[in-house]
Design goal:
alpha/beta; 276 residues; globular
Length: 276
């Protein structure tokens, strides 16, 4: 079991990669950092469950992926993964920004708040900041469905520009234009942590997850935020299979969280925001 792991822990950012996604050129930097290849990185439902069990993770939220190159992980593939372990997985719908209204109809069809519990679009994949007009129908659909919009903030590990991960002005514009929208922003937001603090003070519906970071590598300014105003806004995530739950949780005891803060971080905030 991972250090101080909580048997109720929820991983809010995971995916069971397909071979076609693992072979994308922009993923090669992450494969190099993790000392894997496009074939050895490929998880299965069984290996994902084993990694979760090793770290005491009760539930993982698996994401579909769609980019300009097409479907990378389809909704049907995520649904099939969930069906193999329905008490251990939930799913996130994705969107094709080239066809926003088709994506809106797919969100309406797929999101039931039981199996699929949110929507994720990663801006760097499209090279479109989140205030681009093509996202706006997606935001309205999330509000109508009563689910969070999940995205990425901060620098990018893949070989794509980090500019779309700036919180100000891009994400701030969205939060101003859609005050009802709940946003869960992944990957911490480094190096723009002052912007993160500013926006979480300004907008009560902005949440952040720690995916793509082992907890002992979190920036000190982020740890200060998560033990203060961020205690009710921060969620645990891994970016599995790039990082395992056990590796991510190994530094939990060094964060200085109270018991209540640790419970909120590991599962309480996610349960509330995703309606789990």
């Amino acid at each position: 079991m991972a250090e101080a792991a909580d048997a109720q822990t929820i991983d809010v950012w995971a995916q069971v990669l397909t071979e076609r996604m693992a072979q994308r050129p922009w993923l090669q930097t992450l494969l190099r950092w993790t000392k894997t290849t496009s074939m050895t990185i490929l998880p299965t439902v069984a290996s994902t469950l084993a990694a979760m069990d090793e770290a005491g993770v009760a539930l993982s939220i698996l994401s579909a992926w769609h980019g300009p190159e097409g479907e990378l992980i389809t909704h049907d593939e995520v649904a099939a993964q969930i069906a193999q372990a329905p008490t251990r997985f939930r799913g996130l719908v994705t969107a094709d920004l080239a066809r926003p209204m088709e994506s809106v109809r797919e969100i309406r069809r797929r999101v039931d708040r039981k199996q699929f519990i949110g929507v994720r679009v990663v801006p760097w994949l499209w090279n479109l900041p989140p205030n681009d007009r093509r996202y706006y129908p997606i935001y309205a659909a999330c509000i109508d469905a009563g689910v969070p919009f999940c995205t990425q903030i901060g620098h990018t590990g893949p070989l794509r520009s980090s500019e779309t991960g700036r919180l100000i002005p891009y994400l701030e514009d969205v939060l101003l234009d859609f005050p009802e929208l709940v946003v869960v922003a992944g990957h911490v937001g480094f190096p723009w942590l002052d912007e993160l603090t500013t926006l979480t003070i300004k907008f009560p519906n902005l949440y952040v997850d720690t995916s793509a970071y082992a907890l002992h590598r979190l920036p000190p300014a982020f740890v200060e935020w998560m033990t203060g105003i961020g205690a009710s806004r921060v969620m645990f995530g891994t970016n599995w299979p790039m990082l395992s739950p056990q590796r991510c949780l190994a530094g939990l005891g060094g964060l200085g969280l109270t018991a209540a803060q640790s419970a909120a971080f590991l599962h309480g905030n996610a349960r509330r925001v995703f309606g789990l």
